[in-house]
Amino acid sequence: MDKVFNLKIVTPEKVYTKVDVSSMTLVTDNGEVTILPNHTEYLANVEISILKINCEGQNKLFAVGGGAFRFDEKNNAAILILNSIYSSEDVDVVKLKRKEEILRSEIASAKSLLEQKEAERHLRDIINRLSLKN
């Protein structure tokens, strides 16, 4: 049995990383899931949440902006197709706090339910990224 699996993370801009990992924990539309090597075939939507990857014995945390996940049992490989991904080094607290204030104002003054829901989704993403610094 393999002790690692290959993880490829893709965003709309680029291939973020390809790395061998021993485990990963993510939040899907069915709740939190931990994936280990040789997992069964799996497909899920990924929520705006924190992604935890264990690589070479070290846990790494990332804020992800939702997307999709697939584990390919035959190849012992996973792919994360994400709207966005940020490490704690990518988080500019001052800038995000300003964006948070603007989004809260947009939610309060939204003229439609669609405007409100879109602003709320962006706010969840901002709060999620800020949580990497806490």
Structure, explained:
This protein has about 130 residues and is of the alpha+beta class. It contains two helices and eight strands; from the N terminus they run ββββββββαα. Helices cover about 25% and strands about 45% of the residues. Strands 1, 2, 3, 4, 5, 6, 7 and 8 form an eight-stranded mixed β-sheet that branches. A hairpin with a 4-residue loop joins β1 and β2. α1 runs antiparallel to α2.
Q: Would you report the number of β strands?
A: 8
The geometry reads as: elongated
**Radius of gyration based on Cα positions:** 16 Å
Derived from helix and strand composition plus strand pairing, the structural class reads alpha+beta
Number of helices: 2
Major β-sheet profile: 8 strands, mixed
CA-CA gap between termini: 37 Å
Order of helices and strands: EEEEEEEEHH
Corresponding CATH superfamily of the largest domain: F0F1 ATP synthase delta/epsilon subunit, N-terminal
Global mean pLDDT:
95
Looking at CATH, which topology of the largest domain would you report?
ATP Synthase, domain 1
Number of folding domains? 2
Which residues form runs of ≥5 with pLDDT under 50?
Answer: none
Q: Which band does the percent of strand residues land in?
A: over 45%
Binned, the helix content reads 25-40%
CATH architecture descriptor of the largest domain: Sandwich
Q: What is the CATH class designation of the largest domain?
A: Mainly Beta
